[in-house]
Structure prediction request, 520 residues.
Amino acid sequence: MGALHKGHSALIRRARRLAGSKGSVVVSIFVNPTQFGPREDLSKYPRPFSQDRKICHREGVDLLFHPTPSEMYAADASVVVNESILSAGLCGASRPGHFAGVCTVVTMLFQIVRPTIAVFGEKDWQQLAVIRRMVRDLKMPVKIIAHPTVREADGLALSSRNHYLTPETRALASRIHAALIATVMEAEAGEISMAGLRRGLLKDLAAIPGAVVDYAAIVDAETLEPLKKFGRAVKARALVAVKLGGVRLIDNVTLSGVSK
Amino acid sequence: MGALHKGHSALIRRARRLAGSKGSVVVSIFVNPTQFGPREDLSKYPRPFSQDRKICHREGVDLLFHPTPSEMYAADASVVVNESILSAGLCGASRPGHFAGVCTVVTMLFQIVRPTIAVFGEKDWQQLAVIRRMVRDLKMPVKIIAHPTVREADGLALSSRNHYLTPETRALASRIHAALIATVMEAEAGEISMAGLRRGLLKDLAAIPGAVVDYAAIVDAETLEPLKKFGRAVKARALVAVKLGGVRLIDNVTLSGVSK
Prediction:
């Protein structure tokens, strides 16, 4: 989607390492209209293209794919790729059509670029899970690599939408990650009740002045199904979406490895 | 879908010529469960695989791809490719979910086989139009080639479902194509009212003893939108679906080139 930050640079560097000297690294920059809802920030989404291009050049990108919306979508386009289970909850519940837009454009990009490997950030964990599922179910010949979330010094996950924050909401935003870390610590201290962990997480988020919690969930990392308890083989993930001063921020952390 | 007949052989020979001596011809044989409705003929659909294999061998096929349903679909599969405009009418109206099943399995086959060219029969005209639209909208790197319908001597379009016909319904079935040809001749004789042409077509079909007409339509060959009149550049196609003794038969002919 462009508006590249250090999180994107980390993805590009990961791709560069994976491609080696023989492979090519392709970056797509496309603010995809079909994944925005009618009352979302499509028109004001940042598009600093010349800066993005510099970053790509610096990171050794071989090809920058930057199509226009009309190059991607015919006026009478009528085909959609839809994932119906993992997309239903979390961000999908408050952003209807979002993941269909994501699946469709990622399919198109895969058909155009035909990558052997594609790197996605863990910050958009649900998107990552949905894309893994799509690649599995449609037998796409591409390996999906997940790259860890890059954070500011105070823990805030990097996001192009952080630019929308005021100095006041920016200062408060770090408390989202702090709440997730507190949940990890509670789990490590022996709390195995998901309801208990989730209560603590919600309480910490609700204590952020002006925060509106969209969701806070502890789910199976792959299926995104709600978990009741840790089990030996359970890979749990805590995910949150919070609005701060009208800016919707998401973050997530792993709770795996804390099961007793 | 297998149960190969001379129509399929013609598709394979077309592919063989297109591939030349350097290219490979791949045939998929897969009775795709997701394109059958709950009350359709999935379980009784013919599966004469050893005979199909012989035909493929004789026609110089390089690879025969014959997966099982569980190799194609995970138990928790949740991703569908859906075309919503061209799929809505005609066969789509009486077979809900059919074209989503077709689009999904064809996408999967394209991802697995990665063909540069794919040959489809004109007999399933709506399917052909839907797949062309899917390839266009999802930017799939494959060229779709349409091959003319192969017919019995009396005009009946070859179909694996013709095996279901009794001697009596088989004799009547040729009147479907005869009705379409009569429509072509009426158009060539100067009838430019689509309503008039369609009335004649419906009358001829209704005159077949025991026939239940599912639809008879004259549409734009590409968009499948109903036409009112011929125009200079209009490519019209007449399409019908008729049940004879419970066997659903489809056929279509071009009306292009008859405009005045």
In short: The CA atoms of residues 51 and 113 of chain A lie 23 Å apart. The longest helix of chain A spans residues 167-188. Strands of chain A lie at 26-28, 63-65, 79-83, 117-121, 143-147, 211-220, 236-244, 247-254.
